[in-house]
Amino acid sequence: MSTPPVLLTRPLADARHFAAYLGVPCVLSPLLKVAFTATPPGDARAVLFTSQNGVRAWTAGGGPVGLPCWCVGPRTAALAREAGFDLRGWAADAAGLVRLVPSDAPPLVHVRGAQARGGVAAGLRARGLSAAEAVLYEACPLPLTAEAAALLRAGHVVAPVFSPRSARLLAEAVPEGALPHLRAVAISPAAAAALPVPAAAVAATPDAAAMRDAILSVLDESGGIACV
What is this structure's pTM? Predict the structure, then answer.
Protein backbone atom coordinates (compact mmCIF):
# COMPACT_ATOMS: atom_id res chain seq x y z
CA MET A 1 0.00 0.00 0.00
CA SER A 2 1.41 3.39 -1.01
CA THR A 3 1.37 6.20 1.51
CA PRO A 4 -0.61 9.31 0.53
CA PRO A 5 1.20 12.62 0.23
CA VAL A 6 0.64 15.38 2.79
CA LEU A 7 -0.94 18.55 1.44
CA LEU A 8 -0.54 21.73 3.52
CA THR A 9 -2.93 24.55 2.64
CA ARG A 10 -2.04 27.06 5.39
CA PRO A 11 -0.66 30.52 4.51
CA LEU A 12 2.84 30.07 3.11
CA ALA A 13 4.93 31.07 6.14
CA ASP A 14 2.85 28.88 8.45
CA ALA A 15 2.87 25.99 5.98
CA ARG A 16 6.66 26.07 5.65
CA HIS A 17 7.14 26.14 9.41
CA PHE A 18 4.69 23.30 10.02
CA ALA A 19 6.23 21.19 7.23
CA ALA A 20 9.61 21.48 8.94
CA TYR A 21 8.04 20.63 12.29
CA LEU A 22 6.15 17.67 10.85
CA GLY A 23 9.37 16.20 9.51
CA VAL A 24 7.98 14.53 6.39
CA PRO A 25 7.92 15.77 2.78
CA CYS A 26 4.86 17.92 2.07
CA VAL A 27 3.23 19.61 -0.90
CA LEU A 28 2.44 23.26 -0.15
CA SER A 29 -0.59 24.89 -1.74
CA PRO A 30 -1.78 27.79 0.42
CA LEU A 31 -5.52 28.45 0.22
CA LEU A 32 -5.09 31.75 2.05
CA LYS A 33 -2.77 34.73 1.61
CA VAL A 34 -2.46 37.15 4.51
CA ALA A 35 -2.67 40.86 3.67
CA PHE A 36 -1.97 43.56 6.25
CA THR A 37 -4.80 46.07 6.04
CA ALA A 38 -4.53 48.65 8.84
CA THR A 39 -2.12 50.55 11.06
CA PRO A 40 -1.79 49.50 14.71
CA PRO A 41 -3.05 52.00 17.30
CA GLY A 42 -0.14 54.09 18.50
CA ASP A 43 -1.54 54.62 21.99
CA ALA A 44 -1.86 50.92 22.91
CA ARG A 45 -0.75 50.01 26.42
CA ALA A 46 -1.00 46.20 26.25
CA VAL A 47 -1.68 43.73 23.44
CA LEU A 48 -3.33 40.36 22.96
CA PHE A 49 -2.17 38.16 20.08
CA THR A 50 -4.21 35.10 19.14
CA SER A 51 -2.14 34.27 16.05
CA GLN A 52 1.31 34.78 14.60
CA ASN A 53 -0.26 36.82 11.81
CA GLY A 54 -1.34 39.33 14.44
CA VAL A 55 2.26 39.80 15.56
CA ARG A 56 3.42 40.11 11.95
CA ALA A 57 0.70 42.64 11.11
CA TRP A 58 1.52 44.72 14.20
CA THR A 59 5.24 44.88 13.49
CA ALA A 60 4.76 45.41 9.74
CA GLY A 61 2.52 48.37 10.52
CA GLY A 62 5.09 49.95 12.81
CA GLY A 63 3.12 49.42 16.00
CA PRO A 64 4.88 50.10 19.31
CA VAL A 65 6.73 47.16 20.88
CA GLY A 66 8.00 46.67 24.39
CA LEU A 67 4.39 46.53 25.60
CA PRO A 68 3.01 43.82 27.90
CA CYS A 69 1.35 41.10 25.85
CA TRP A 70 -0.50 37.84 26.28
CA CYS A 71 -0.79 35.25 23.51
CA VAL A 72 -2.47 32.09 22.30
CA GLY A 73 0.03 29.32 21.61
CA PRO A 74 3.76 28.93 22.21
CA ARG A 75 4.77 29.87 18.66
CA THR A 76 2.82 33.14 18.78
CA ALA A 77 4.33 33.83 22.20
CA ALA A 78 7.86 33.17 20.90
CA LEU A 79 7.32 35.43 17.90
CA ALA A 80 5.98 38.23 20.12
CA ARG A 81 8.99 37.93 22.42
CA GLU A 82 11.36 38.01 19.43
CA ALA A 83 9.59 41.16 18.19
CA GLY A 84 10.39 42.90 21.47
CA PHE A 85 7.16 42.55 23.43
CA ASP A 86 7.09 42.00 27.18
CA LEU A 87 5.52 38.54 27.16
CA ARG A 88 3.48 38.01 30.30
CA GLY A 89 2.06 34.57 29.44
CA TRP A 90 0.31 32.41 26.88
CA ALA A 91 -2.70 30.10 26.82
CA ALA A 92 -3.64 27.12 24.67
CA ASP A 93 -6.75 28.76 23.22
CA ALA A 94 -8.79 31.96 23.21
CA ALA A 95 -10.96 30.92 26.15
CA GLY A 96 -7.84 30.23 28.18
CA LEU A 97 -6.43 33.61 27.21
CA VAL A 98 -9.52 35.37 28.57
CA ARG A 99 -8.96 33.58 31.89
CA LEU A 100 -5.20 34.14 31.90
CA VAL A 101 -5.05 37.93 31.70
CA PRO A 102 -4.81 39.34 35.24
CA SER A 103 -7.53 41.62 36.58
CA ASP A 104 -5.06 44.49 37.00
CA ALA A 105 -3.88 44.43 33.37
CA PRO A 106 -3.68 47.82 31.60
CA PRO A 107 -6.13 48.62 28.78
CA LEU A 108 -5.79 45.88 26.19
CA VAL A 109 -5.97 45.68 22.40
CA HIS A 110 -6.81 42.33 20.80
CA VAL A 111 -5.16 42.11 17.36
CA ARG A 112 -7.16 39.94 14.99
CA GLY A 113 -7.98 39.29 11.34
CA ALA A 114 -11.11 40.34 9.50
CA GLN A 115 -12.46 36.79 9.41
CA ALA A 116 -11.40 35.76 12.91
CA ARG A 117 -14.13 35.03 15.41
CA GLY A 118 -14.50 37.71 18.05
CA GLY A 119 -15.06 37.08 21.70
CA VAL A 120 -11.70 37.69 23.34
CA ALA A 121 -12.24 41.41 23.95
CA ALA A 122 -15.87 40.84 24.90
CA GLY A 123 -14.87 38.11 27.35
CA LEU A 124 -12.35 40.40 29.02
CA ARG A 125 -14.85 43.25 29.22
CA ALA A 126 -17.26 40.84 30.91
CA ARG A 127 -14.57 40.41 33.57
CA GLY A 128 -14.42 44.17 34.03
CA LEU A 129 -11.23 44.83 32.06
CA SER A 130 -10.74 47.45 29.35
CA ALA A 131 -10.34 45.64 26.02
CA ALA A 132 -10.67 46.85 22.42
CA GLU A 133 -10.08 45.21 19.04
CA ALA A 134 -7.74 46.12 16.18
CA VAL A 135 -8.46 44.36 12.86
CA LEU A 136 -5.07 44.58 11.15
CA TYR A 137 -5.06 41.84 8.55
CA GLU A 138 -7.19 39.78 6.21
CA ALA A 139 -6.72 36.23 4.93
CA CYS A 140 -7.68 36.20 1.24
CA PRO A 141 -8.58 32.93 -0.55
CA LEU A 142 -6.30 31.36 -3.16
CA PRO A 143 -6.93 28.46 -5.57
CA LEU A 144 -5.18 25.11 -5.30
CA THR A 145 -2.01 24.79 -7.33
CA ALA A 146 -2.07 22.55 -10.37
CA GLU A 147 0.23 20.11 -8.53
CA ALA A 148 -2.12 19.86 -5.55
CA ALA A 149 -5.18 19.40 -7.76
CA ALA A 150 -3.41 16.64 -9.71
CA LEU A 151 -2.49 14.84 -6.47
CA LEU A 152 -6.12 14.89 -5.32
CA ARG A 153 -7.30 13.52 -8.64
CA ALA A 154 -4.67 10.77 -8.59
CA GLY A 155 -5.35 9.19 -5.20
CA HIS A 156 -5.55 9.62 -1.44
CA VAL A 157 -4.09 12.81 0.02
CA VAL A 158 -3.66 13.63 3.74
CA ALA A 159 -4.72 17.24 4.22
CA PRO A 160 -4.51 18.89 7.66
CA VAL A 161 -7.05 21.66 8.33
CA PHE A 162 -6.41 24.17 11.11
CA SER A 163 -9.75 25.99 11.26
CA PRO A 164 -13.36 25.66 10.12
CA ARG A 165 -12.72 28.28 7.44
CA SER A 166 -9.73 26.41 6.00
CA ALA A 167 -11.83 23.23 6.00
CA ARG A 168 -14.56 24.96 3.99
CA LEU A 169 -12.03 26.42 1.56
CA LEU A 170 -10.48 23.00 1.04
CA ALA A 171 -13.91 21.51 0.40
CA GLU A 172 -14.57 24.15 -2.26
CA ALA A 173 -11.14 23.66 -3.87
CA VAL A 174 -11.14 19.86 -4.22
CA PRO A 175 -11.49 18.96 -7.92
CA GLU A 176 -14.72 17.39 -9.08
CA GLY A 177 -14.81 13.68 -8.34
CA ALA A 178 -11.81 13.80 -5.98
CA LEU A 179 -13.59 14.12 -2.62
CA PRO A 180 -13.28 10.35 -1.94
CA HIS A 181 -9.49 10.83 -2.07
CA LEU A 182 -9.44 13.43 0.71
CA ARG A 183 -8.10 12.19 4.07
CA ALA A 184 -8.41 15.30 6.19
CA VAL A 185 -6.92 15.71 9.66
CA ALA A 186 -8.79 18.35 11.69
CA ILE A 187 -7.43 20.45 14.54
CA SER A 188 -10.79 20.48 16.31
CA PRO A 189 -14.31 19.04 16.15
CA ALA A 190 -15.47 22.37 14.70
CA ALA A 191 -12.96 22.09 11.85
CA ALA A 192 -13.98 18.48 11.30
CA ALA A 193 -17.66 19.47 11.10
CA ALA A 194 -16.85 21.93 8.29
CA LEU A 195 -15.36 19.19 6.10
CA PRO A 196 -17.36 17.63 3.25
CA VAL A 197 -16.23 14.10 4.26
CA PRO A 198 -15.57 12.52 7.66
CA ALA A 199 -12.18 13.45 9.07
CA ALA A 200 -9.54 10.70 9.02
CA ALA A 201 -8.47 11.99 12.46
CA VAL A 202 -9.12 14.84 14.86
CA ALA A 203 -6.29 16.22 17.00
CA ALA A 204 -6.57 15.37 20.69
CA THR A 205 -5.95 19.03 21.55
CA PRO A 206 -6.04 22.13 19.29
CA ASP A 207 -2.30 22.63 18.92
CA ALA A 208 0.59 21.85 16.58
CA ALA A 209 1.94 18.93 18.61
CA ALA A 210 -1.39 17.11 18.61
CA MET A 211 -1.85 17.80 14.90
CA ARG A 212 1.57 16.33 14.20
CA ASP A 213 0.67 13.21 16.17
CA ALA A 214 -2.64 12.84 14.36
CA ILE A 215 -1.09 13.28 10.90
CA LEU A 216 1.70 10.80 11.58
CA SER A 217 -0.86 8.33 12.90
CA VAL A 218 -2.86 8.57 9.67
CA LEU A 219 0.31 8.14 7.62
CA ASP A 220 1.31 5.09 9.69
CA GLU A 221 -2.08 3.54 9.11
CA SER A 222 -1.49 4.04 5.39
CA GLY A 223 1.80 2.18 5.38
CA GLY A 224 4.58 4.61 6.17
CA ILE A 225 5.96 7.96 5.09
CA ALA A 226 5.47 9.34 1.60
CA CYS A 227 8.20 10.90 -0.51
CA VAL A 228 6.69 13.55 -2.80
Answer: 0.80
